[in-house]
What we know:
Layout: H1 23-40, E1 44-47, E2 50-53, H2 60-73, H3 75-101, H4 111-118, H5 121-150, H6 155-182, H7 187-207, H8 209-222
Antiparallel strand pairs: 1-2
Helix pairs in contact: 1-2, 1-3, 2-3, 2-5, 2-7, 2-8, 3-5, 5-6, 6-7
Amino acid sequence: MTTVSSSAGPAPAGFAHRPRTYFDLIVAAYCVVLVLSNVAATKGVAFGPVLTDGGFFLFPLAYVLGDVVAEVYGFRAARRAIVTSFAAGLFSSVVFWLVIALPPAAFYEGQEAFESVLGPVPLIVAGSLLGYLAGQLLNAFVMVRIKARTRERHLWARLIGSTLVGELVDTVVFCTVAAPIIGISTLPDFLNYVVVGYAYKVLVEVLVMPLTYAAIGWLKRREPTYGTAVSPAGDAVPAR
């Protein structure tokens, strides 16, 4: 008869299992893009008669990321990414407000400059987050609704259709709040700001569409669970 002795040593260290997915990396990129674009948006920028803000080249990337998440992971995952980045933007605004409120050291000579650059950020973030939340949720919703009808066909229609709806709401809400903060005070300048911003964001989406196609295709080939049918709400359903 053979007996098996058990050692009384300490149990091995335990760790949570981390599933193989690229979703968390995309969410991190979401947060970085939103926070940086909110800071950059405090600077008004003029290219001749064209008025915009310093975040003009960065913020459209959030919609590219949003399209990728909605197409590959579904609406529920897109909503999670949007809410997470929304929280990151809100947190950054609170941090800037607290840092500005802290009493400056006697040797610190940059308080006024710090306030002039980052002081408007909480107000900019308020407009940005309201527009971002509404626009991104609409963007993701339209994306998955169109996909429910077209399946894997006509990705271009999903990308453009969702962008036209989401960016319109986002741009109007954000520009309404941000315009007086960055110095836009007349109706013609405001309309310039809105129309140029909207047209630019849609144009960027169209121009980078080949890259969006490539990113979506790359993720679909590498995400082990892609191909599981999901409802428009993001719930798994049996594939037909």
